[in-house]
Amino acid sequence: MPSDEIDKNVEEEEVERPGLGAGAGAGLGFKPKPQGEEEEEDLLPSAFGKRIKEAAERREREREMAKFSASKSVKSKSASTGTDMAEFERHTRGIGMRLLEKMGYKGGGLGKNQQGIAVPIQAKLRPKNMGMGFNDFREAGLPPAPGTEEQGDKAKEVKPKTKEKLWLKKNREKKKDYVTAAELLLQKMEKGVEAVQTVLDMRGPQVRVLTNLENLNAEQVAIEENVPMPELQHNMRLIVDLVEADIQNYDRKLRHEREAVVLLERERERLQIEVVRQKQQLENMEALMIGISQIKMMVAEGGMSLEALADAFVNLQTKYREDFKLHNLSVIALSFALPLTMSLFHGWEPLVQPLRGIDIMGLWQGVLQGNEPLDYSIFPETEMTGNWGTGYGGGSPPPYTLLVMEAVLPPVRTATTNTWEPRDPEPMLRFLELWEKLLPASVLQSILEHLIMPKLMLAVDAWDPLLETVPIHAWLHPWLPLLGSRMDPLYMPIRFKLGNALQAWHPSDSSAYALLSPWQAVFDPGSWEQLLVRSIVPKLMSALQELVVNPAHQQLEPFNWVMAWAKVLPIHHMAGMLEAGFFPKWQQVLYHWLCCNPNFDEVTQWYLGWKSLLPAELLANERIRRQLNVALEMMNQAVEGTPVVQPGARENVSYLRVTEQRQFETQQQQQHQAASTAYSQQHAGSAGGIFGDNGAGAAVMSLKEVVEVFAQEHDVQFLPKLGRMHEGLQVYGFGMVSISIDSAKQVVLAQTGEKWVSVSLEQLVEMHRSRSGGRWK
């Protein structure tokens, strides 16, 4: 470089080729074979091309020899002295030497140290038809661009160069590697780059073509950073991007066409298979037509029975199963079988001969139905008139279903309507059990809904529990597996008739239990409890009230009558009856017995005897255990010698104390109200006095006192139930109803089952009457 000092050692080993201005003729001679010549060899591969190429090379050698001789004379002239350079300009108009002298040139090589140029200008022939700068082709005489990697490496490493024989083949530069289309696509695929799309940039005075938006301002940036020939580099980069975009588009189209070829090949194979299949179908259809024609001839001659006809169609179905099903040939089979089947079942009594024709129908079920399930649409909910098609969306039913409806169902309908008696369900149940697998679901449902249920409803309406000797559950419950929830409309009239029949019933009659207990699992829990509360509980409560507890001579029949219902009655109703009708008198008898210095062994045996009469379900109930514990406490007090507390005494004392306290508070309130009334009369007149009197009267009566007065007016017993509390409130007995009074909320709560609901006083009277044996109004 001009700024570097000349290295003397390098100068001695320098090639004898001088720099510019120091005798440039030495660098001339035979021109080495250019790099692009190898490419020219590939351009003329034929014999005629070789002759053209040899003639061109011969002319080129002649021109080189002429140039070499001329340069040799110039070299000998310029080598004599360096100061004679440009001497010829004195005789011309050139001012080149004068300009150099003005800038300080004194002769010799150029540069600060007269070292000349680093690399002599070399001539390199471009390939034919190649433009300047195409495909990064570099002219041999042009030095590398400043700032590039090549120039930086040369600046760092300055090595002495020996004279090279560039014209030798082994000293030629290696052929540059080019990226093929396949390699480019592979690189794009590895990088995951999407296909390049062309973008038109119309922001400037001229339209620019871009392939992406990443290098949108690359040209301006290159100019600002002093990149050599930025326009040319931009254009070259654009050409490369467009070529890459074309390659990717062509590749995408090629792949699309290949996929289309694959799809068309698959379609061709499918069509070939379809052709073979349809050809096979035609052959099968011809065979089926021949077979059906033979069957038709044999039926016309009268030589085929139902069994032989079924076997013939089974053979056709086995050989050509798919075609038999596809063309619905079961309809043709039905047309042959229906007349013969109707003749077979003519005059048939299904309740007397349920096995008649069952084997033949099994054969035809396999022919007409195959492996299809018995799950067709049900019939419309109308009378069976013969218009069966309306149950299948306007079309005809399946072939086997139509065969059953036309041949089997008419005799069944006639027998059910005319001869079957609902109180004898066994014949009809036996027929349905044998034919259940052969009857389609729609036919079976139609028989149950349109034939069986109407007959059962008529029988229930005519049933009288007081006159019938056979219980109703004996001929109704066998239909539960088949009818199920369809029998719900029958339950309400049955409960009504049972309730009427139990009005005159006495607990000593055990037939009521045998009549009602089978219905516990059939009726819903609410209806079952309502029936027992209305018809059974009041009668059992009366039996407990009539029971006399006498340790000397005890009659246990009334108690056993009640305990017989323990398995069907809800547990809370049983506990309520024992608390109200049995345990108070039983505890009073025990109290008086313990006060008379009894034999404690006898008392213990008496206690254990009564306890053994209670079922395990009642002994596990908390309310029953509480009553038994009261008896045990009295027995313990008697054994220990302490005074025996009478059962219910503490509760009565507490009740009296509370009653006196409330009466005292009522008197105080009345006095205060009277004073307020007098003051109001003085200031508000007579109208205010009347209003004050009414308000005082309303305030004096508490809710409990109102209930007591209401109970006295309707002749209903109103007493507290000792030891029973509900949410911290005392429980009272309003006749047969347990109630609690909430004075804070001013409501009366009544126990209905396991719940406590708010009721009015009129509703209390109705509940008491219903539980006492009366009826709801």
Profile the largest sheet. Answer: 5 strands, antiparallel
Low-confidence stretches: 1-40, 77-83, 148-161, 374-394, 679-699
How many strand segments?
7
**What is Rg?**
62 Å
Kindly name the structural category: mainly alpha
Query: Could you tell me the strand content as a percent range?
Result: under 5%
Strand order of the largest sheet: 3-4-5-6-7
| Net shape | elongated
Helix content: 55-70%
Query: How many helices in DSSP terms?
Result: 31
* End-to-end separation: 129 Å
Average of pLDDT: 76
Question: Your description of this structure?
Answer:
With 777 residues, this protein is mostly helical. Helices cover 56% and strands 5% of the residues. The protein has helices at 8-13, 37-41, 47-79, 96-102, 149-156, 181-191, 218-224, 230-300, 306-319, 321-326, 330-344, 358-368, 399-407, 409-418, 426-435, 441-462, 472-476, 480-483, 488-501, 511-516, 525-535, 537-546, 557-563, 571-581, 583-594, 600-612, 616-619, 622-640, 649-700, 703-713, 761-771; strands spanning 199-201, 208-210, 718-726, 729-734, 737-742, 747-752, 755-759.
Outline the fold blueprint.
Layout: H1 8-13, H2 37-41, H3 47-79, H4 96-102, H5 149-156, H6 181-191, E1 199-201, E2 208-210, H7 218-224, H8 230-300, H9 306-319, H10 321-326, H11 330-344, H12 358-368, H13 399-407, H14 409-418, H15 426-435, H16 441-462, H17 472-476, H18 480-483, H19 488-501, H20 511-516, H21 525-535, H22 537-546, H23 557-563, H24 571-581, H25 583-594, H26 600-612, H27 616-619, H28 622-640, H29 649-700, H30 703-713, E3 718-726, E4 729-734, E5 737-742, E6 747-752, E7 755-759, H31 761-771
Antiparallel strand pairs: 1-2, 3-4, 4-5, 5-6, 6-7
